[in-house]
Design brief:
single chain, 461 residues, Uridine Diphospho-n-acetylenolpyruvylglucosamine Reductase, domain 2, Uridine Diphospho-n-acetylenolpyruvylglucosamine Reductase, domain 3, Vanillyl-alcohol Oxidase, Chain A, domain 3, 4 domains, eight-stranded antiparallel beta sheet, 15 helices, 20% strand, globular, binds flavin-adenine dinucleotide
Length: 461
């Protein structure tokens, strides 16, 4: 016999948009984070417009069935994981770029649009949407908004929230909230748009966003610098910050990442045998300004003791240099499966974080490679373990938590961009404290009194 909620959803959305076959629904039941549990959904629904989303929310509220909103499922916190008996609300069919307003440099976009497709769409108008998570060729704008995603160019352009002007959100009672603005400035009322950004599907369903765009930057020039100590690389980062230089990208790789990338690419990156860290930086200012910016960055690296510092304006050569950074996760798969952490520390303390990861690696007996966005302090220590070994998995979990502890002890945060989800709930409590948690719960209760959206994710009530 059919479930009455499923019957109701099919009446509203049509049979094809309501999936219950477990072979199919299993594919929508978890994201990319191996540490998080997932349950069996009652149904997976794929509405194609805001009215469809409202119908799902109203029906689920009436039947008291929880909703887990979902984009592409590329998340790394378990935040899109199904819980038993829930409805997984997939937003990928709301996939239109509604408007591109060149004059005001803004766009209106639905949540199911893939980040790269959106970037390409605005680029045709000479415009640039900065947020660029490494998963940009498959993650969605809705997922990016809900996790406040970052990426390689945050150091200059900020994270997703820095591009958001306004949102349309379906609330727990099925009503539609339009919040924010289309103007450059605007301070009317609480900044509700930013409250929903990063709320990981716990407060409402984002069905449309108005985002600010930038002019297309110039083609990037690239600098690579090699250091025989992580402290020297860390000092170079700190000096870049202190002197007010703003590269469009500044990444760091530790010795373990460098070795993995070299083995994978079957190449020697030109560093000496005792190279402990690589810094990669870019300027997208173009022409003489970029030349000056890169020269200043190079000088800082040399002053801080870099063994090698090399700058190029050649686009292809720059891409080749950056490739070493981009392949690290894939390269680590040569040794096992990876579990990537996501902490952010003050930019003066990056070397201490790397040292902490080296110590933890020795303690747990597992390889830990540190790569990260040095320009904003957001590091991704990545633990490698054998897929079939429960014992190694347990050690990886231990290392994952130990890294969070080190980050907090350095005055950092337990997540720079991936979010809390189902894997860092107790760490959120540790970081924000009792009063912070109470305010979170009060906001959740005010907006979602029935605990309809993503219950148990981020924190419990
Ligand atoms: C290889 C790899 C590299 C990555 N690199 C980066 C990176 O550089 N930077 C970064 O920030 N992240 C990165 N990520 C993590 C992930 O891609 C981002 O968190 C991304 O924003 C998730 O988008 P998604 O569409 O896959 O969302 P999902 O994983 O499906 O969902 C993420 C969260 O958003 C909620 N949600 C989704 N859509 C909506 C909506 N419309 N309304 C309300 N809630 C919604 C879900 O409930 C969940 O809480 C990476 C992941 C992988 C696998």
């Amino acid at each position: 016999m059919s479930n009455p909620l499923v019957t109701r959803l099919r009446e509203h959305l049509g049979t094809a948009a309501v999936l219950t076959d477990t072979d199919v629904t299993d594919a929508y039941s978890r994201d990319m984070m191996p540490l998080a549990d997932s349950g069996k959904p009652l149904a997976v629904v794929l509405p194609s417009d805001v009215e469809g989303v409202q119908a799902v929310v109203k029906a689920c509220a009436e039947f008291e069935v929880p909703i887990v909103p979902r984009g592409a499922g590329s998340g790394l916190s378990g935040a899109a994981n199904a819980i038993d008996g829930c409805v997984v609300l997939v937003l990928t069919k709301l996939d239109q770029v509604v408007e591109i307003d060149e004059g005001n440099r803004l766009a209106v976009v639905q949540p199911g649009v893939v980040n790269l497709d959106f970037r390409n769409a605005v680029e045709k108008h000479g415009l640039f949407y900065p947020p660029d998570p490494s998963s940009y060729d498959w993650c969605t704008i809705g997922g990016n908004l809900s996790t406040n995603a970052g990426g390689l160019c945050c150091v200059k352009y900020g994270v997703t929230t820095d591009s958001v002007l306004g949102l349309e959100v379906v609330l727990a009672d099925g009503s539609v909230l339009n919040t924010g603005r289309r103007t450059v400035k605007g301070v009317a009322g609480y900044d509700l748009a930013r409250l929903f950004v990063g709320s990981e599907g716990t407060l409402g369903v984002i069905t449309q966003a108005t985002v600010a765009l930038k002019p297309l930057p110039q083609l990037p020039s690239t600098l690579v610098a090699a250091f025989n100590s992580t402290e020297a690389a860390g000092e170079a980062v700190a000096r870049v910050v202190r002197e007010g230089l703003v590269p469009s990208l500044m990444e760091i790789m530790d010795a373990t990442s460098i070795k993995a990338a070299e083995a994978y690419l079957k190449t020697d990156l030109g560093t000496s045998a005792d190279c402990k860290a690589l810094l990669l930086a870019q300027s997208d200012s173009g022409g003489e300004v970029a030349r000056r910016e890169l020269a200043a960055l190079e000088q800082i690296c040399v002053d801080c003791g870099a063994d090698l510092a090399y700058a190029t304006e050649d686009l292809e050569e720059g891409k080749m240099l950056l490739q070493a950074r981009r392949v690290v996760l894939t390269a680590l798969e040569m040794y096992g499966v990876w579990l990537t952490d996501d902490v952010c520390v003050p930019r003066t303390r990056i070397a201490e974080l790397i040292a902490g990861c080296e110590r933890i690696s020795e303690e747990v007996g597992l390889r830990i490679a540190v790569v990260g966005h040095a320009g904003d302090g957001n590091m991704h220590p990545t633990i490698v373990y054998a897929q079939d070994s429960e014992e190694e998995f347990a050690r990886a979990r231990k290392a994952f938590d130990a890294i969070l502890d080190v980050a907090l002890s350095l005055g950092g945060t337990v997540t720079g961009e991936h979010g809390i989800g189902r894997i860092k709930r107790e760490w959120l409590a540790k970081e924000i404290g009792e009063v912070g948690l109470r305010v979170h719960r009060q906001i959740k209760q005010a907006l979602d009194p029935g605990n309809l959206f993503n219950p148990g994710s981020m924190f419990s009530l």
